[in-house]
């Protein structure tokens, strides 16, 4: 029997989406365009845009600037070259889009940036930001074009945008296009993060354009023509911290206030009725900042919990919604190394490495708070920022408590976690697999006489740890952990059964993550027109906490070849 939610959308995977529409039938809303000031210039050329939140710009069909001939290849792209590579059924259900839409020629054309429907008012957003710690002034959507808002059956609005759909006034020296390798990575990680339970933008589709795109992947003069693609990204909105920074930097307080009011009304309506009086210490902008800080803390704590490293934590890549946005040279930890950065540009200083993400979150929010000072005052900004550290500690302790399978938390548990991480780092052990293996440790281990029996639950992960002193450290740690489990009780004095604890831990410690080498396998095949591995990987990543014994090959640690450039670390070229 097919069950439906209140949107009338089928909850059965792969079945007809009841009561939904084809994408081309959607009556789009356009609140960003309708409620915020526009750039009066309609020509598409790179320029400073002042006094405006966006520029109107339509997508450019991929075949218009097919670059295949650059290296002597035949130019063959046309509308018939467009191909739906991957489609997120769960994202389509969220939007109330009919599943069969993925097979519609018009839907594919729209999602490739080759067609605009009558109700759309496409635009590119204007914003600024700090990049690698330095003010970059105007940035904006350089190759992203927003199509408008889809309203689902619950009345929820979601903005959809195309990445790689052509030039905008913010493209600077770039061509506005995207290649298959970066598009596969963005599509897969958007959906992987969603199914991990981490706040994120979504990806509805990945379309191959058939057009060539010229790229120098590592900025070393090795120019290639790569296959082009377009990703459709979905979020409640795409307003960034940098959306506020640019008008504040330019002292355009009228635009700053308009963007703030729009964002509050659109995504934080609980503050809409609150006063905007500058002298009120709890005005709507203070409450808005407080909520953005809280959401950002929760997002970063969840990143840390699964070993996700964003790679480009510039202020223009942070959403006011506290959702992960802009999947470029990201990575997940393989062996535990807090200094790991997946971005070749970040390698010299490792500003955005795993271990620094919490402090970078505060740095970015400080720049955001500074932008809001004209609306809340210096003291208001400082007071809210002071909440960050306490919030972060509280959220981290809650996260670690869940990952350890504990019902309570004590100060001694901080040391238990730290010693676990320190030993993982020393022995170069796999972050994901070690956390997952902890659920196999029984409380009986605390009384087990034989050391090797104590280590049996971690046997597979510790296979490369042969030194006696290192193995003894793990024996001691497992005994301490087992003893802690045996005495664990909630506030009412109740404990968990082993089965309950294992179930709870396996819901927060994933078995499957998007390892870079897995993405690379899918990319190399997709670049040659074989999408089977991409679709298989997507299927696995949609159930990251399930055992899936038939797919255990996807839990394996990286092979030796995965240490090369373009796999474990990537550039911003895309």
TrEMBL record:
Superkingdom in the source lineage: Eukaryota
GO annotations of cellular component type: chloroplast thylakoid
Pfam families on file: SelO (PF02696)
Keyword Nucleotide-binding: yes
The entry's keywords: ATP-binding, Magnesium, Metal-binding, Nucleotide-binding, Nucleotidyltransferase, Transferase
Necessary cofactors: Mg(2+)
Entry GO MF terms: AMPylase activity; ATP binding; metal ion binding
Ranges in a coiled coil: none
InterPro entries: SelO
Similarity comment: Belongs to the SELO family.
PANTHER family recorded: PROTEIN ADENYLYLTRANSFERASE SELO, MITOCHONDRIAL
Protein name per UniProt: Selenoprotein O
Species: Rhodosorus marinus
Organism placement in taxonomy: Eukaryota, Rhodophyta, Stylonematophyceae, Stylonematales, Stylonemataceae
């Amino acid at each position: 029997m097919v069950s439906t939610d209140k949107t009338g959308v089928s909850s059965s995977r792969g079945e007809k989406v009841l009561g939904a529409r084809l994408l081309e039938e959607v009556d789009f809303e356009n609140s960003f365009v309708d409620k915020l000031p526009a750039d009066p210039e309609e020509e598409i050329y790179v320029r400073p845009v002042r006094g405006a939140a966006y520029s109107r710009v339509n997508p450019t069909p991929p075949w218009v600037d097919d670059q295949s001939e650059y290296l002597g290849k035949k130019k063959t792209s046309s509308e018939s070259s467009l191909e739906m590579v991957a489609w997120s059924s769960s994202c389509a259900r969220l939007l109330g889009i009919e599943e069969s839409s993925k097979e519609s020629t018009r839907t594919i054309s729209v999602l490739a940036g080759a067609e605009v429907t009558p109700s759309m008012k496409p635009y590119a957003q204007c914003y600024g930001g700090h990049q690698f710690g330095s003010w970059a002034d105007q940035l904006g959507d350089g190759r992203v074009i927003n199509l408008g808002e889809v309203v689902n059956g619950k009345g929820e609005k979601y903005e959809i945008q195309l990445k790689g759909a052509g030039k905008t006034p913010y493209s600077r020296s770039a061509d506005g296009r995207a290649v298959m390798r970066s598009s596969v990575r963005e599509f897969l990680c958007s959906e992987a993060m969603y199914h991990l339970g981490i706040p994120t933008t979504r990806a509805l589709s990945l379309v191959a354009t058939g057009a060539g795109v010229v790229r120098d992947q590592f900025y070393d003069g090795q120019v290639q023509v790569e296959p082009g693609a377009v990703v459709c990204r979905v979020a409640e909105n795409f307003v960034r911290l940098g959306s506020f920074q640019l008008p504040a930097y330019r002292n355009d307080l009228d635009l700053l206030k308009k963007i703030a009011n729009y964002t509050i009304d659109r995504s934080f309506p609980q503050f809409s009725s609150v006063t905007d009086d500058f002298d009120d210490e709890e005005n709507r902008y203070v409450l808005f900042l407080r909520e953005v800080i809280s959401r950002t803390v929760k997002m970063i704590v969840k990143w840390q919990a699964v070993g996700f490293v964003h790679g480009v934590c510039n202020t223009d890549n942070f959403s006011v919604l506290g959702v992960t946005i802009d999947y470029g040279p990201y990575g997940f930890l393989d062996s535990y190394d807090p200094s790991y950065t997946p971005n070749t540009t970040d390698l010299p200083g490792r500003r955005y490495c795993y271990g620094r993400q919490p402090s970078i979150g505060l740095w970015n929010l400080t720049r955001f708070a500074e932008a809001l000072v004209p609306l809340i005052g210096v003291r208001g900004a400082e007071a809210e920022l002071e909440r960050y550290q306490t919030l972060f500690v509280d959220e981290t302790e809650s996260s670690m408590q869940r990952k350890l399978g504990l019902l309570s938390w004590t100060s001694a548990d901080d040391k238990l976690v730290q010693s676990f991480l320190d030993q993982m780092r020393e022995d170069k052990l796999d972050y994901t697999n070690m956390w997952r293996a902890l659920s196999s440790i029984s409380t009986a281990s605390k009384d087990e006489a034989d050391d090797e029996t104590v280590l049996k639950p971690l046997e597979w992960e510790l296979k490369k740890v042969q030194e006696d002193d290192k193995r003894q450290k793990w024996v001691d740690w497992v005994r301490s952990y087992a003893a802690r489990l045996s005495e664990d009780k909630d506030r009412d004095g109740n404990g968990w059964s082993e089965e309950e604890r294992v179930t709870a831990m396996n819901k927060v410690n994933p078995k499957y993550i998007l390892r870079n080498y897995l993405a690379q396998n899918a990319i190399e095949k997709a670049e040659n027109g074989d999408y089977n591995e991409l679709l298989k990987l997507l299927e696995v990543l949609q159930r990251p906490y399930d055992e899936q014994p038939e797919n255990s090959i996807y839990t394996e640690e990286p092979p030796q070849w995965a240490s090369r450039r373009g796999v474990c670390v990537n550039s911003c070229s895309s």
